Amino acid sequence: MKITDLKKKFKNEWVLAEVLKENSLNQVLEVKPIAHSTDRAMVYSELNKVKGKKHLTTIFTGDLPQKEMVYAFNAKSKI
């Protein structure tokens, strides 16, 4: 699934996905969705259930925080 299609299908959600295709700058172009939710914690908990060596990414399909805001991401995985 292309990123543009993913953003339309899962609007304003967190998505855990396997990366299928990247460009030369390592920007993700196509993915296979694994889990999605409006709850970020649920998506990160699904990360621990993924078996095997897969190239994964998490994507938020909503609006990014404003420039003045501070935010942090943290994920742990037992791969």
Q: Care to describe what's here?
A:
The longest helix is centred in the middle third of the chain and has 8 residues. Strand 1 and strand 2 form a beta hairpin. 11% of the residues are buried. By secondary structure, this protein is of the alpha+beta class. The chain has one domain. Helices cover 19% and strands 30% of the residues. The protein contains two helices and three strands. It has a three-stranded antiparallel β-sheet.
| Outline | globular
**How many structural units, i.e. domains?**
1
Helix content: 10-25%
Described by strand count, sense and barrel closure, the largest sheet is: 3 strands, antiparallel
Q: Please state how the strands of the largest beta sheet are arranged side by side.
A: 2-1-3
Average pLDDT, rounded to a whole number, is 86
Classify the secondary structure makeup into a structural class. alpha+beta
| Oligomeric organization of the protein chains | single chain
Determine Rg (CA atoms, Å).
13 Å
Helical run tally: 2
Overall number of strands: 3
Strand content: 25-35%
Sketch the topology as an H/E string, one letter per element: HEEHE
Low-confidence stretches: none
